Amino acid sequence: MSIQEGTILVGAKPVMNYVLATVIQFHQGAQRVIIKARGRAISKAVDAAEIVRSRFLQGQVDITNVKIGSETVGEPGKERTVSTIEIVLEKKA
Length: 93
Hints:
With 93 residues, this protein is of the alpha+beta class. The chain has 2 helices and 4 strands, in the order βαβαββ. Helix 1 (15-27) crosses helix 2 (42-56). The longest helix has 15 residues, at 42-56.
């Protein structure tokens, strides 16, 4: 997963941290914000996207795309596959 401007990487922090980060991106003029997560953080990413869409920026943003996939992580011999998700939120025109 590549990191770019307007991208929120979801990890171990509480969901509201990612909601706030997303709302701030939109208030700073971003037209599109991508929420990315992998593994156990996927449910937090989905929660954050839904909270932004339905509570904080109700009627202002849409989920325009969701990409799912998997990555192989770990050292050779101890490799494992981890699920990934990218949720694209865009401001309505």
